[in-house]
Amino acid sequence: MTLQLPSMPTLAARTVAVDAPDDLLALAPPGGMAWVRRGDGMIGWGEVARFDSRGSSRIDDAATWWRRVTRHAVVRDDVQVRGSGLVAFGSFSFADASASGGTLIVPRYVLGVREGRGFLTEITTDGTHGHAPDLASALGPVAPAAPLPALTQEEGDRLAWNAAVESAVARIKAGEVDKVVLARAVRALAESPVDPRSLMPGLAQEYDGCWTFHVDGLVGATPELLARVDHGLVTSRVLAGTIRRTGDETADLAHAASLAHSSKDREEHGFAVRSVTQVLASHCASVNVPDEPFVLHLPNVMHLATDITGSLDHAASVLELVRELHPSAAVCGTPTLAAARMIDALEGMDRARYAGPVGWIDSAGDGEWCIGLRSAEIDADDPRKVRVFAGCGIVAASEPDSEWAESEAKLEPMRHALGLS
């Protein structure tokens, strides 16, 4: 079946240098998009083009549309840094069958900072560069973020969780899968609509090593890089194996050592590393995989982490890699198809875009995509409604109580941001 693409006007992007703002997120207009880590990143607002897709080909279809858009685009980039020029922000559902599907959005304006250099991009649909964009005119008077309203949350169904974990462990021991990742969602209801701009500054400050993002209603601060492509170099950060922090430095150092030597956590981590390495090896002339994981320290938890790098041997776009990498063993399990079927049978919910790819792509096919973890979904139809997500890797040695505690720790960033903890 041939993909029917919408008619597309010729886009023109003009990027100019501007003074780097001290705080990108403080300038975000209502309804905008964001991608920020340690002060670097981008905010986007307005919308000149959008592509929505569903089903098992949703990422491929979006990549095809983007190739068509960029083939005819006119780009003048005076800055030439990552994220300048023509870009699109996007997010995709975890599951093929999810009604949430996927979206690529081309903003009207992008304001970015890269290693202290500020840039502003204006994207138009008339195919001409026009005049250089002006930041004051582009932003206009920015309405401040709405104060965070009071929220109430539902209690998690611990009995259902215990039953799901116990069933998963039994099926793992029976040889159906080696690992499966089970997730849970906590629903919250606010007294008034939730403005994602009221959540992101706190997340970016507290979790500065994570990627703070907002794309199409999914907001969060994720620690897991699915794929970054930058001039032929591809990087992926794999996280699997988790322990909660205590707040006591001495105790946490001991816990970090315990995590690093835990056979259960190292087994879980190994599945995730292998699933990513196999994909990258098929696209790279060389792949570097460290012999041992390191312990990534976040304010609420510690993870076993491995940074995998490779040199692409052909002109693969970041979305091509994302399509093959998703879902990795870190968010689905091993083997992938059997684990996905087990998730469908045991979770009892649609993850929507939680644990799906979220990020951005430029006109050269480079970009940065993470896994949408430590996130919340703001309901598009009723922005008073929020779902907060967390997932845990289940292996043969898993126990329901410890997995519940791990999921509670992973819920903490978004709960705290929402004033729920």
Automatic annotation (TrEMBL):
EC code: 5.4.4.2
GO MF, one annotated term: isochorismate synthase activity
Pfam families found in the cross-reference section: Chorismate_bind (PF00425)
Annotated keywords: Isomerase
Enzyme class: isomerase
Residue ranges annotated for the Chorismate-utilising enzyme C-terminal domain, each copy included: 160-410
Reactions mediated catalytically: chorismate = isochorismate
InterPro entries the record matches: ADC_synthase, Chorismate_C, IsoChor_synthase
UniProt-listed NCBIfam families: isochor_syn (TIGR00543)
Record family assignment: Belongs to the isochorismate synthase family.
Protein name, entry field: isochorismate synthase
Taxonomic placement: Bacteria, Bacillati, Actinomycetota, Actinomycetes, Micrococcales
